[in-house]
Amino acid sequence: MIHEVDEGLRRLLGECGLEASGVEIVFDAPTRDWAARRSAPTVCAFLYDIREDATRRGSGAGEVYDADGQLVARRTPPRWFDLTYLVTAWASRPQDEHRLLSQVLSCLVAVDTLPARLLTGTLAELGLTVGLDVAGAATDVPAAADVWSALGGELKASLGVRVRAPLAGAVTAVAPPVTEGLVVRSAARRADGQADPGRRLRYTEVSDPGPQGFAGPRERGPAPARRRHRGDRQP
């Protein structure tokens, strides 16, 4: 799911014309050594915090059907996570960096969610809304100054971007539907001494299958001869 959120953000920023103008979009950690190797204008979206939104945790399981409407699996509810990115712009001059950062800000604040057309993988399969919050006040994540200190770099203008995305639940396959009935065999042997091959009871789609649920009435063999008991009168 995390790499799918990365791809959604990259596509969204790409639609703003960044890549067309020669600006790279990367997800690297902006350390001091990394910054020294940069030679082209770059927008960096560094993921530094991942936290579950426990208030949205569900229970139970949903059903998954195939194209024919057959139940094929059961899936546990998705878990929701907040992914927080530190978005920065890198260029040869501060003015160019601010211009890039302004372009990124205009692009991100124009939407409240990652558009469905930009989602891939499980995010597209689930069909759920992936929320997007830009430069909002987040009291439960590390401050930008602490992030820069941990990276070993100098404080730099940045945007805090939070994406709220679902992690697909576990899928458990179910057994295929029953299409044939049971095989009924008799313990008695046939007249030729061979074992009874048995008879398969088949299900059928009828309006009133009856209590047995099988196709038609069962065939009955000849009635067994009546056993004679002591005291029976002779004819």
Automatic annotation (TrEMBL):
UniProt biased composition (Basic residues): 225-235
Residue ranges with Basic and acidic residues bias: 189-205
Membrane-spanning parts: none
Domain of life the protein comes from: Bacteria
Protein's organism: Streptomyces rubradiris
UniProt xrefs under InterPro entries: Pvc16_N
Region ranges (Disordered): 189-235
UniProt name for this protein: Pvc16 N-terminal domain-containing protein
Residues of the Pvc16 N-terminal domain: 4-180
